[in-house]
Each structure stands twice: as C-alpha cells, then as structure tokens.
Design brief:
Pfam families: PEP-CTERM. Keywords: Signal. This is PEP-CTERM sorting domain-containing protein. It is a single chain. This protein has helices at about 1-20, 190-214; strands at about 20-30, 45-50, 55-60, 65-70, 70-75, 80-85, 100-105, 115-120, 125, 130-135, 140-145, 155-160, 165, 175-185. It has about 210 residues and is α+β, with helices and mostly antiparallel strands. A 6-stranded antiparallel sheet has the order 7-6-10-3-12-13, with no helix packed on it. Helix 1 (about 1-20) packs antiparallel against helix 2 (about 190-214). The two termini are about 15 Å apart.
C-alpha cells in the first residue's frame, strides 16, 4: 500500500515537472519591413477618420502578442489611432469586433523614422486568421506608410463611406508592420519526464488490479 502511494506521488511529481519544463519561444508572424526600419521609401497610405487600414496575418498555434511595430505616423497637429486585432473571416474585414485593441498617439513626420511600437499585455490569440487594423480618431490626419516600394500589396483599406476594398496596385507595397508573438514550447526533456510519469502511473494501476484480483 505504501509503495503504491509513493509510486503515485512520484508519478505526479514527474508529470508536473514535465509540464513546467517549458521555454518561451519568440516568433515573428508578420514582417513587411526591410532590414532597415529607420528609412522607408514606400507609398503613404492615408489614415484619417473613416479611412481605416487592415493587414492580414496568420497564427499556426496559440500565442500571445509581445510587440507590434508599425510605420504609422501623424502628419497633422494632434490625435491618435486605435490599433487592434479582429478575426479574419473573409477577403475583407467586416465589423470591427475587437479581440484586442489599444490607443496610440503616433509621432509626427519630422524624419524618415516611422516606427510606432506597441508592447501589449495579455493579447492572447488562438491559432487562426486575423486582421491588424488601424482606425483613426476624428480629426486625426496621418498615414500608414508602406515599408517598401515593392508590390503587389494584398491588404485592405476603407473609403470615407466605410466600404472596405483590397489594395492590389503593383506599385504599392504593404503597410509596414512587424508582429512578434510568444508561445510556450516544451523542452526536449519534458517529453521524457512525462513518459516516465505515465509509465509509473500505469505500473501502479497494474499492481492495484492484481491485488484486487488476488
């Protein structure tokens, strides 16, 4: 009886230890920048009230967004932008049902440095397809610049009437965006620990079954 109890305790410890032995991996799931993000030559996409911009991205597995770097800038005097994530169910965004969002106030265009960085907390997403969307405040006048001059550019913009359309000009690159996510990845030793724990549990179960039969 005592041996059986000790086996179960040891098995539980190994299982818990195996589950805890994980590392956090960082992955870039969207990157439309060149290597140099300090000098962008791409097309400036207008970003004003009612004229939104959306860029599609994919997640192969559940993850949390660690950072979002964009080339969103302000050309007017003031104002901000809501930057967030919605589910992607088709070729164009639908209603803006935010899964996560935050309000940012981009810097003005005083140089060719167009980097608005967001480091959100708690932006967890399941595997799937998403849109990264920028929505300007009333009175905001700015742009989400393409990171390169290369096309085509499979992203979406909304007109002043609120109708979304795909930008497919061969002369317009995608808006500059870099999304970095983190996800828990089991270490190789984890699988061995979990296997050992499973074997101990199975052995204890067999011993218990034999005792009951005897």
């Amino acid at each position: 009886m005592q041996l059986n109890a000790l086996s179960k305790i040891a098995a539980a410890a190994l299982l818990l230890g195996g589950l805890a032995a994980q590392t956090v991996a960082q992955t870039v799931v969207l990157n439309t920048f060149d290597a140099d993000t300090s000098y962008l030559t791409g097309w400036p996409n207008p970003l004003r009230f009612g004229e939104d911009v959306a860029v599609a991205f994919e997640l192969d597995s559940a993850a949390s967004i660690q950072s979002i770097l964009t080339s969103i800038v302000r050309v007017g005097d003031s104002g901000g932008v809501t930057l967030g994530v919605i589910a992607r169910d088709g070729a164009l965004p639908g209603s803006l049902n935010w899964l996560h969002s935050t309000h940012v106030e981009p810097t003005s265009v005083d140089a060719f440095v167009h980097n608005t960085l967001v480091s959100p907390t708690g932006w967890a997403l399941n595997a799937g397809s998403y849109w990264l969307v920028a929505v300007a405040d009333a009175g905001f006048d700015g742009q989400w610049q393409s990171a390169t001059d290369a096309g085509p550019a499979p992203y979406a913009v909304s007109t002043s009437t609120g109708v979304w359309k795909t930008v497919d000009s061969e002369f317009t690159g995608m808006p500059g965006a870099r999304i970095t996510v983190t996800s828990a990845v089991p270490e190789p030793s984890t699988y061995g620990l979990m296997l050992a724990g499973g074997l101990l549990v199975a052995a204890a179960a067999r011993r218990n079954a034999r005792r009951q039969q005897g």
